[in-house]
Amino acid sequence: MEGASYQRFPKVKIRELKDDYAKFELRETDASMANALRRVMIAEVPTIAIDLVEIEVNSSVLNDEFIAHRLGLIPLTSERAMSMRFSRDCDACDGDGQCEFCSVEFHLRAKCIGDQTLDVTSKDLYSSDHTVVPVDFSDSGAGYENPEDQRGITIVKLRKGQELRLRAIARKGIGKDHAKWSPAATVTFMYEPEIHINEEMMETLSLEEKTSVVESSPTKVFALNPQTHQVEVVDPEAYTYDDEVLKKVEAMGKPGLIEVYAKEDSFIFTVESTGAVKASQLVINAIEVLKQKLDAVRLLEDTVEADDQFGELGAHMRGG
Amino acid sequence: MSFLLSLSCGIIPFANHDHAKRVLFQFQKHYQQAIGYSTTNPSIRVDTLTHNLFYPQKPLFKTVLSDSLGTPKHSIGQTSHAKHEYYNGQCAIVAVNVHLGYNQEDSLVMNRASLERGMFRSEHVRSYKAEVFNKESFGKKDKAEDNTVFGKIQSKIGHVDKLDEDGFPYVGASLQSGDIVIGKHAESGSDYSMKLKNGEKGSVQIVLSANDGGKNFATVSLRQVRSPSLGDKFSSMHGQKGVLGFLESQENFPFTIQGIVPDVVINPHAFPSRQTPGQLLEAALGKGIALGGSLKYATPFSTPSVEDITNQLHRCGFSRWGNERVYNGRTGEMVESLVFMGPTFYQKLVHMSEDKVKFRNIGPVHPLTRQPVADRKRFDGVKVGEMERDCIIAHGPTANLYERLYTLCDASHMHVCRKCNNMASVIQRSVPRGPKIRGPYCRFCESVEDVVKVNVPYGAKLICQELFSMGIAIEFESELC
């Protein structure tokens, strides 16, 4: 246990960064770290979401629970979430979770008067805190051509005479408790592939066979150089490890013509955010949360007395 | 050709690839049990029991018959777009894989995040109806006892806190089992209230009081919203039913390179013996359609060929046979084998575990046998019969068996005379020069000398007494301990 140091210095290289999208490389670490980061991004980075709804009037076609559920899923801008408190351990309010440290209040009042159907959307939600508002998708470059599409997220549609009036309280939470608190739309990574072509063997193939090898991959990984008629790897990262090429090569009776290895220590991450936090911030927050969790483990190790209560288990946890 | 099939059968994709038994299964049983969205006015209807799916979806594939569904809107001279029918299911991303053994024996694993985002959420409305005596109606004689009216009185049978003075709960009140739904009493004061039975609960959606055909009646409907829970039943379009075995978190599922995580994981053992390759074809075709492929029809008997489907997937940048490389969600390692994944139309069936759970510790018993009464609405338990008992014996926990079946259930005692080995009943007798005493007494030996108390199950005691009453005496050999 003692002596050997497993300390590594992972490197991050950012490839692409947008508000709700990030693509980066993570190198010189292993799958456990990469996956820990992914898991934390999905399930443990805190955001703010509507958690409690008091309905005053609801004469819409959807029932109260339906509307409450829809409200909960609306992403709210959550830059403040990391510094906010969980309402369950907030000292300022006695557990009812209605103070400035742990909650944000929303109001919604809508009534359809005209003959046209009225869409009640996330833009109709009035927040008591200007830093926590429903995410505005109009400026994220999604390219809406029709200004009508920028109306936010539809909650319910009202016809003439129908009314919806409610008060909602948004709280901090994590994706583990409910998916509505998950800031991640997609978080995924892939091992960086290393593709080797056995040139000698490739030369023995006819042009037709080469084309069939190139086309056997559903993604554009290989290409046939029009001048030299050589098979080249144009985009190794397009390879999805689907084995289609390997199967093709095997079927042709040329095993080993193309070999693919996954680099065990480099990963290409793709992160898409719901808009609650920026994709870049999501990664940073995830690292922060991960650090806090590791600190908790380290503190446990420091206090050997505390381990007494765990008995044998404590010794086991120390690696004894 | 496809119109030779019925409505429900004609919208099964690739029905010609499935075993006929499975197709029959699907459209006879599962299709009518599936929860859909059957009406456009659910919030003002008072059906005895209705189920509505929150977010019904249209399947990705089409069949010639499904195109004919829905009411066409007739505008002058031309028919514009048909109004689409609400389907009774949702498109789930289904992976065919084992998942920690939680999808054995036709159970399935679902993604909790998907459910929390509204997948297979449904509302269930149950109505309660009560009638009262109509004063204006003629022909009936006035009997004070029958003169029932709606109203709130302090009831002995249940809680009336949620009722208004008129005897009805307010709209939005959350009623639990044991509460009164409709307060009703006779003018004499006797209580005729309607109570929620065990397992019935919900919040009040409609309160209606009306007069129909000379009868005054009132209806209260209760609404309940349910997200899938363990034990709920689901089915694909190919007679592949299964119950929910585990709710797994999103991050623990295997994920593809694009970050796709399955909503449902089913066991590969469901396929070989059932002979339903139609479901796999549906998933493969569905995947191609979701990626923007041009093949859209899966009409039975004119389905696209397997080659067309695989080529479409290949064109869309996916593995021909619908397999995908996944990473283990727990460790982040690449999974050695490829996993078949694709969008499949799944239905939630009305059989839900919440309506079927049975459990009790104490509750009402039958007065004669002192055994629990058999009715789920009356806190029925699960019967441990002979075979169940044999299983427990086979596993060896005899002390537990003794405790469950005897000490906590059926414990009783009786008296036996050790001289004549007959049962000694407890009687009241007079002793010379003393007060009357009550206790066990052997009528045969006319003494209390050798009477002992033995512990027996109540059932055993009962049958001895019943036999005794018919003139058959049973002898008991006893040993002191």
Automatic annotation (TrEMBL), chain A:
It comes from the Eukaryota. Keywords: Acetylation, DNA-directed RNA polymerase, Nucleus, Transcription. PROSITE patterns: RNA_POL_D_30KD. SUPFAM superfamilies: Insert subdomain of RNA polymerase alpha subunit, RBP11-like subunits of RNA polymerase. One of its GO terms (cellular component) is RNA polymerase V complex. This is DNA-directed RNA polymerase RpoA/D/Rpb3-type domain-containing protein. It is found in: Nucleus. Belongs to the archaeal Rpo3/eukaryotic RPB3 RNA polymerase subunit family. GO terms for biological process: transcription by RNA polymerase II. Residues 21-300 form the DNA-directed RNA polymerase RpoA/D/Rpb3-type domain. The keyword Cell membrane does not apply. The keyword Transcription applies. GO terms for molecular function: DNA binding; DNA-directed RNA polymerase activity; protein dimerization activity. InterPro entries: DNA-dir_RNA_pol_30-40kDasu_CS, DNA-dir_RNA_pol_insert, DNA-dir_RNA_pol_RpoA/D/Rpb3, RBP11-like, RNAP_Rpo3/Rpb3/RPAC1, RNApol_insert_sf, Rpo3/RPB3_RNA_Pol_subunit.
UniProtKB/TrEMBL annotation, chain B:
Residues 381-477 form the RNA polymerase Rpb2 domain. It comes from the Eukaryota. Its EC number is 2.7.7.6. It holds the Pfam family RNA_pol_Rpb2_7. Residues 9-378 form the DNA-directed RNA polymerase subunit 2 hybrid-binding domain. InterPro entries: DNA-dir_RNA_pol_su2 (IPR015712), DNA-dir_RNAP_su2_dom (IPR007120), DNA-dir_RNAP_su2_hyb_sf (IPR037033), RNA_pol_bsu_CS (IPR007121), RNA_pol_Rpb2_7 (IPR007641), RNA_pol_RPB2_OB-fold (IPR014724). GO terms for molecular function: DNA binding; DNA-directed RNA polymerase activity; ribonucleoside binding. One of its GO terms (cellular component) is DNA-directed RNA polymerase complex. Keywords: DNA-directed RNA polymerase, Nucleotidyltransferase, Transcription, Transferase. It is an enzyme of class 2 (transferase). This is DNA-directed RNA polymerase.
